[in-house]
Give the backbone structure.
Amino acid sequence: MAKAELPLHAPGTQLDKGYIGQSVPRANAQRLLQGRGSFIDDLRFPRLAHVAFFRSPYAHARIKRLDFSKASKAEGVIGVFDGRSVAEYCTPWVAVLAHLKGIKSPPQHAIAIERACWQGEAVAAAVADSRSQAEDAVARIEAEWEELPVVVDMDEALAGKRVIHPELGDNICFKRELDTGGVDEAFATADVVVEDVFHFGRHTGVCLEGRALLADYNAAEHSLTVYHATQAPHMMQDIFSRHLNIPEANVRVITKDVGGSYGIKVHVYADEMATAALSVMLRRPVKFVADRLESFVSDIHAREHKAKVRLACTSSGEILAFELDDLTAIGPYSVYPRTSGIEGNQVVNLTGGPYRHQKYRAKMHVVFTNKNVTCQYRAVGHPIAVALTEGIVDLAAQKLGMDVAEFRRKNLIPDDAYPYTFPSGIKFEKLSHHKSLNKLLQLMDYQKLREEQLRLRKNNIYRGIGLAAMIEVTNPSPAFYGVGGARISAQDGATLRLEPTGMLTVMCSVTEQGQGTEAVFAQVAASAVGVTLDKVRVITGDTAVTPYGGGTWASRGAGIGGEAVLLAGRALRSNVLDVASQILKADKATLDILNNEIINRLTLETRMPLAELGRVAYFRPDTLPIDFQSELTVTRHYTPRQYGFTFTNGIQASWLEVDPDTGFVRLLKHWCVEDAGTLINPMLVDEQIRGGVVQGIGAALFEECLYGPDGQLLNGNMADYLVPMAGEMCDIVCAHLETPTRQSQLGAKGVGEAGTAGAPAAVMNAINDALAPLGARVTAMPFTPQRILKALGKV
Amino acid sequence: MTVNGSPVRRRIPARQHLVDFLREELGLTGSHIGCEHGVCGACTVRVDGDIVRGCLMLAVQANGCKVDTIEGLSDSGELEALQKAFHERNALQCGFCTPGMLMAAQDLVLQKARCSREEIKRHISGNYCRCTGYQAIVDAIEQVLNGQG
Amino acid sequence: MKAPSFAYARPGTLAEAFDLLERHGEGARILAGGQSLIPSLNMRLSSPELLVDITGLAGLSGIESLPKGLRIGALVTHAQIERSPEVKRHAPLLAQAAPHIAHPAIRNRGTLGGSLALADPAAEYPACAVALDATLVIAGKKGERRVKAGAFFKGLFETDLRPGEILAAAEFPPADKAVFVELARRHGDYAIIGLAGTQAASRKRFVFLGAGATPILAVNASKASSLEEAREVLGKDLDPPADLYHSSATKLHLARVLLERAWNKL
């Protein structure tokens, strides 16, 4: 397909791409800046009831008895419910996908029945007039438990002496093996073989707004409206419908402002399903907002991996082969409907990703444990794959005595080698690794930085440079979930309507979570139709209003939703010109739209304002020819299909200082060069990258869900689970290359996860570069002072 | 107490903290609840001119006090410069932390004429933002304080 | 999470406060700035019947110069200490410590008295009080009594305060030199370990926070004649409890690093 034929005359600009490529501030930020957003907890409803959950204090225990007699009598209590009573209204689910062969998981209920399998799993719900009263009732629930043996350690889970779900036979949720062949030969003939084991701590998303929904069941209509802080309203509509047995047409999911999601809010949570069921049971609106403490034990976790990786190369520095053995633990259930097998699967797909070796062997096990469940969280699998790859690549370069940038240059897939099939089977349409590397080295003044590093080492100042090249999955096709049987849409749609006043209304199925979806859709729509940005209003997040679509995940909003908007915009533009040609009795080919007016395409002379066209089309169509009907509302859809995923590439660098006395790491600067195809709004892209990088820095330096041997989460509050704060962050310099995807007219790829994908590896490599002269090396994230001091032999 | 310049009189349970009072009793939902244990800063409001954690103060403790929230300072125009800078630099994404962040930033603006980036970072070091990575926020505050950045 | 139900009283006089405390006994808790108490209520970690808000009591606020040192009322906030020229002049250790306590919004509410009375061993002021050999002024129904900081902190969150008593003020004698250093993962976090060091009449005092159940005066290290020796003997002074992220050995190592940094500044 050809590159987008956007208006030649850019409204208000000199550029030929309209608003595409311009850093326009987001219109919808204004309400948030004044505290006038509309988050779930801000909604006020008549007869609104509040639910609080009684959660298991044990990691694994049989519920012998639940006594609600005191709780039911507490002030303001409407009802107290156990798993069995809720199960009458909400059917259980099993999270497996057909294309993840052999994946297994037991049925999960909205509220656990008989047994709790992790500390924090809800086993009862109290509904009351206020949240405080619901919590008072929860405090009065009496429970008798029989503690069961716990499986906490990954290796123990794999060994399977104790099986969490006996009916499944073992603790293995999913395993995958991949072998291109020739790996043993490659390692046998290699001049240099390096190997290391890397550990990745469990994280969680810590969205500042806790998970939240307000379910409002209307018994008269047998209809359910759910105000839901979710990334995927249509997916949730389908799920509420099927599990609560309400016709899909009677379920409406409305997503207003969402206080952060990062993948946390794209899953089906048992307590959220229970809230919806309770609304049906009680025939009134019920609200659940996860508080911070319950968020830590019930929001999905992610990334607990232990992986051994090996690399074989020649003495001249040519990488011959990678070998991977990854083990990851996901808690007691695979999470619905995306499953918890995807993260490990991604690690297998992506490890070694930027490089041109042809031999690859991987083995990966996903095991059940009695900890909170894990699932897809921003950059799913990428931070692990990138850290494994880049960590071992640095080690190989070190062993060869080669500069790490040169070593990468030697092995990155050449920029002219595309389309390219990677040994894991994934296909790259067009990447720009070498251009990116060059741009990065120039941006950070790599040579000068190396000189500075050497100079400072003489003064016992230990600074390090870490590089991390990466690839990123974006714009996923149905190959991600749909082929596995999940009712998750890979297509999205946009409806554009020219209003009588000449305003443009855009309705799109991709949701806004703060990343700027609505802003970029406005830019695309305005550019495609020929109106100024102030004439555009964007509506997202309402299954009753927008076309059907997947929502926000896997860096797909701009690339898929944006393309749907572009297609609809171009169609609407054509329809508007049809109307204009009728009104003006002029040849359509001589007309165009610029700055909210119909113009003469050649002379640029104004022919009529769009407001006048709208007036005629809507209120005086009697003046138009009898056989002409104006169509000023247009819907178009888009699904990427030519490639499984539209890969992007990028490279990051970290510059930091390690204090060898304290083991503290001070970040000095971070760089990211990213190629996300066509940039619609560079400022928003930079901010996606910066926010993502800091989430990755959190992984490298601070964040880990710590569990005791009894399966208790030890740091489940914001004082003890350390998220990155302003005081410790450094400035992040972003730069871009633009290699548009040719699958779409817009050419945009995704960018939401790139920062998070590469930052942990860059920071790890920088720390190890700083520690190298001291003979120390760390491979277990997060790199706490203690771990660094241990590596230095000081403790 | 006086909230955003208007006198308010309510009978409330002793256990209700200030931000719940503002949100539940007065419908001032701009101050957000992010952790309720004083760490995230989303509930930052101003009491008698000083910023406080709205979740770490009982509403009864604010008896007789002058309380300012994001809504009040938006309407009075006091936050205009910061809001404009935040908007231009996209120093917010999901916007959940933003009211608290603006209250903390304005506190610094009122205290200091000029500030280093490090001082700005320290001043907002108790306000958690998961989306931005903070740089744009620091830039925006710096722009207002120092007219640059 | 929301706090459980409790009653609230804001007495206008000390006598009224003592009366309330006596009547409610164990069920009553004193509320000052609330920056530690309210989070514990919001997490339902404690459930008092009554909170006695002492912020309306006269005589517990104010910073006052003494012939030798400084008297700081229990209700003086961290922010006031941070900004006070008197503190900077007469008790610079406190002025150095205050900015390490959490964040501005918390320092605006949290009080010196609250921090001392809570006796969190990871907090800054208790260590400073011991390092400066402060005297704590305790008000009770029967009158006022005074306790040296070293004797006030008795155990983990345990002080010499008896039921019904209220910490009224602390008196800080001057020091010739003072240094406060701590290591925290993030600005404003509780320190992994910290050190309040003073020197008066050429005698050093090193008091560690985050190093035990109370602020720990490093007796041996304080007496040492050289840094080498001080580092060496610190192992006899400290047996720090591990925290979530750091073992006892790591904390001892970091304590030695801080000792060196403080020593060089005294």
